[in-house]
Amino acid sequence: MDSISLIRTPIEAELEAFKKLFDSSLSSSNALLDSVVSHIRQRNGKMMRPILVLLVARLYDAVRPSTLHAAVSLELLHTASLVHDDVVDESTERRGQLSVNAIFNNKVAVLTGDYLLATSLVHAEQTKSHPIIRLVSLLGQDLADGELLQLSNVSNHSFSESVYFDVIRKKTAALFAACTKAAALSVDANEEEAEFARLLGEYIGICFQIKDDIFDYFDSKEIGKPTGNDMLEGKLTLPALYVLNNTKDDAAREIAIKVKDGTATPDEIARLIAFIKESGGIEYAIQTMNLYKEKALGLLASLPDSDVCTALRAYLNYVVDREK
């Protein structure tokens, strides 16, 4: 059995129910909106975040309608943030597919993102849970805060790992943590169980983002972005930060400053990437990712063994071992 099948096995029926609710949430009589949504749905992918919601809910109880609405709400909020991020970053592609702003325009992309965000809040309300509504609202704040923090850090000439982790906790880990905590809340888990779930999601999210950042150092059409794309946007991620803080190579540091200023040439970025790879940056990032993986596995080890725990361990392994 492949890893995705193993992950989905305990929640096959629940996942089908999620898909139906998610599809119905995006149906519209507006022809333009329907065209944009149809384009977005082409990259539905493996639905890893909704799967995480359903699995964590199953840790504590059976999946309920509130669980499904929470999963839809969070996936819509995530999708809205991606549509808006592509406008902010002036990106023309996401995961190998043309972005909404590239096919339509920025106005359509922003308004579609707003529609998805509003629909997310509608589904949050349908959970009938004030803690989940608050969780979704706070997540919206965190995602925007993380994006602004990242933008402000681009012009900062320091190479801070702590700022990097602040950004990924708000931009990525917060989303996974919201998925796992909302799942627990949707089945009336107690406060201690909800915090356990939140922490598990945070560790998974950190692993997910570090893995994504490692991808930027390798060229692959499957990943859907060229090597050095983050640097072209002025972003220095964990592999680069480690090397820059542990080298006396003035040339590398000068290129890194140019990356942050947006003046580095593609050739300079290629040289910096090669230097980072030669200097152990990728190995350091993998080591750091594996530390968070072990923390997540430690949490799961404290639970009674079950098919759901097996699926969650497979989920974690997939996040760390995936190739795109």
Q: What would you say about this model in short?
A:
By secondary structure, the chain is mainly α. The protein has helices at 3-8, 12-25, 31-41, 48-60, 65-89, 100-103, 106-125, 130-154, 161-186, 191-215, 229-232, 238-244, 250-261, 266-278, 281-301, 307-321, and strands spanning 93-94, 97-98.
Walk me through what this model shows.
The protein has 324 residues and is mainly alpha-helical. The protein has a single domain, classed as Farnesyl Diphosphate Synthase. The chain has 16 helices and two strands. A two-stranded antiparallel ribbon has the order 1-2. Helix 8 runs antiparallel to helix 9 and helix 10 runs parallel beside helix 16. It starts with a helix and ends with a helix. The mean pLDDT is 91. Keywords: Magnesium, Metal-binding, Transferase.
